[in-house]
Write a structure and sequence with these properties.
The chain is an alpha+beta fold. The protein has 10 helices and 16 strands. Strands 1, 2, 4, 5, 7, 8, 9, 10, 13 and 15 form a 10-stranded mixed beta sheet that branches. A 3-stranded antiparallel beta sheet has the order 3-16-14.
């Protein structure tokens, strides 16, 4: 299988992704025996709950220091020292110091909701694919609501993919009033490009949550969290019905890589040039929480 390449906004260069569990992932999605195991066990919630439980065991603390070293994480960003985490899961959904992820102060700017690798679709009605040309998931299936999908059919979308090595809390991309998170149950396939290149519909059928964020400049923004293999849970930490500021924490994923999807009403957002350029090449852009993903574009009709 091909290596996974992404564009690092901060380095200004294309990088090769160092995949956690690479051999297991390629065996599962790239061999006949692996695919049997995938459908018999790996995609099932029980497997991910079991793995998440394993990561809650005190003995997993010994994995933290080697993980930090292997993936070159900056421990100075952490709210807690590495030796203070009770188990690997606590380290995995760690909080960061506020100074580690400053929020773009420009009121016209919308910010990335998560650390990770991002792809954008400026117009869902004219999308030629995400990871592979011509391959796009079904919006009504993703939203579980045909009427809602019709409203956003010509809207804009941001897919943010979090690797196991990333900071795993997700945030509000804009200020507004969030409603409750609605759960849509489904299986738990991997959301790594190795899997998505084979079946992009994984994003539309995996277990997911959806929240409507009512904003002043962007209309109603749909915020989704997508579960994945070995994600022990999607936890919401915000208070539905209470106003939030841009960059406020919304929740976190327990162990495993996962994704968020942000969907904007038609004509509401102008994505940043580097994000549009890399997405057009079907290459993800690496960027962090709080940095600009684009700017609001007010409707001419008010």
């Amino acid at each position: 299988m091909d290596e996974i390449l992404y564009y690092d906004r901060y380095r200004g260069e294309v990088c090769r992704e160092k995949v956690y569990g690479d051999k297991s992932l390629r065996w599962t999605y790239g061999t006949p025996a692996g695919k049997v195991a995938l459908h018999a066990l790996v995609k099932r919630a029980l497997f991910s709950h079991w793995y998440g439980w394993q990561m809650d065991r005190p003995g997993t603390r010994r994995k933290i220091a080697p993980f930090i070293e292997e993936y070159e994480l900056d421990a100075d960003e952490f709210m807690r020292r590495p030796e203070e985490f009770e188990h690997f899961n606590a380290f995995f959904y760690r909080q960061l110091k506020r100074s580690a992820r400053p929020i773009d102060p420009d009121p016209s700017k919308v910010v990335f909701p998560a650390d990770g690798r991002h792809l954008c679709v400026p117009d869902l009605a004219n999308c030629d694919g995400l990871f592979v040309k011509g391959e796009m998931f079904d919006l009504p299936t993703l939203l579980g609501d045909a009427e809602l999908a019709s409203r956003y059919a010509s809207g804009s979308l941001l897919l943010s993919r979090l690797c196991p090595v990333d900071y795993h809390r997700f945030h509000f991309p804009a200020a507004g009033l969030p409603g409750p998170a609605r759960l849509i149950n489904g299986p738990l396939f991997s959301v790594n490009p190795i899997a998505l290149r084979q079946n992009i519909q994984i994003l539309a059928t995996n277990k997911r949550t959806i929240t409507a964020l009512t904003t002043e400049r962007l209309g109603t923004v749909l915020l989704m969290e997508i579960g994945a293999t070995c994600v022990g849970g999607i936890r919401q930490t915000y208070d539905p019905g209470s106003p939030v500021a841009k960059g406020d924490e919304k929740g976190y994923f327990r162990f495993g890589g996962s994704s968020t999807i942000t969907i904007f009403e038609p004509g509401r957002i102008v994505f940043d040039d580097d994000l549009v350029e890399q997405s057009a090449a079907h290459r993800e852009l690496y960027a962090r929480v709080g940095d600009s993903l684009g700017a609001c574009r007010l409707h001419s009709d008010g």
